[in-house]
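On to our target:
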Amino acid sequence: MAAAGLGGDLAVATAAFVGTNVDNLLVTTAMVAGAPVERAHRIAAGQVAGFLVIVAASAAAAVVLFEFSMAAVGLLGLVPLAIGLRGLWGLRSRGELDGGSEPETEPVLRPRAGRGRGRARAADRAVGRSFTAAALVTIAAGGDNLAVYIPLFRVGGATNVAAIAGVFVVGEAAVTAAVLWGGRHPRARTVMGRVGHVAVPILLCVVGVVVMAQAGTFGWL
């Protein structure tokens, strides 16, 4: 019976991990694909760090029998929403959303290198090409994870909890590998190189709104 119970916990933990990490996989892969190749591991590491924070918070809440208000947790959706809106605003201010045309009154002798650096900085802000951005987005998109993971950690018994943690470790390793493979795939990078500076901020905005809608935050405000 104990073995059957452990097997059931493993199956539930696997289903819970898959069901709550599809959005993180898609968003982080898009961030990697839209960033320079040398930043891929930094972004993937940020995703891992964000997931570890979620798991630690869930385990701690399970130990002290603390219950999160999902409507309040949904406020985390403001993080990807803010990052996305900031990125779109930065692109808008540089004319990227209007075809990137330059004013006719621009000085002819303006250094092109400076323009290139400015465009790169705008793309950086829009796509969120950093460890911190990836971690924050992962944590923010993981509000629903808390509602699922806390009951799992309350199943009782060190063996069960260790097995669930093992599932999460294996699952996160698989997600990280998938993120790096998908984000560095030539076809994905080609597409994101063309539209990523706009697509990723929009995707982040969508994630933020969905997180708050699913948590019932809009009705709570």
Summary: The first helix runs from residue 2 to 33.
